[in-house]
Amino acid sequence: MRDWQSQAHVKHYCKYHVVFVPKYRKKAIYGSLRRDIGKILRELCRQQGVEIVEGNAMKDHIHMLLMIPPKYSVANTIGFLKGKSAIRIYRDHLQVKRNFTGRHFWARGYCVSTVGLDEQMIREYIRNQESEEKR
Question: What is the average pLDDT across 47-76?
């Protein structure tokens, strides 16, 4: 059974599989930065009213299954997450390092796919991404 969300005048089930990468696809997400990126993204999603259903940070990309309310566009939500998280990552971790140009941490684009009946398959894919990549 699907968990429908509701707001004042709408019931919705809008889930999206989102992938985005650091600038130049550098393997920059590791150790304490990996944990902190997770905390930062969870906090930003909570501020926007976006639910992270599933998420995983790899060394060179982020996978997330997001439930985004219909009052926000996917592009605005991802722009908010990437922009605000880049500022916080730079402020907390990268102010000494200059291996990224300026304060840009994330690359410009992202990949998004709507989730329908294959939600469980996508959740398992996100969970097992690390073991799949090693294989």
Answer: 90
How deeply is 37 buried, as exposed, middle or buried, from its count of CB atoms within 10 A (0-12, 13-18, 19+)? Answer: buried
* Among 30, 90, 110, 125, the one annotated catalytic: 125
Give SS3 for 61. Answer: coil
Measured between alpha carbons, how far is 130 from 135 in angstroms, rounded to an integer?
9
Q: How far apart are CA 79 and CA 108, in angstroms?
A: 9
DSSP state of 106: B
Does 13 participate in catalysis according to the annotation?
A: no
When the pLDDT of each residue in the chain is averaged and rounded to a whole number, the result is 82
Q: Whole-prediction pTM value?
A: 0.79
> What is the spatial distance between Cα 65 and Cα 116, in angstroms, rounded to a whole number?
12
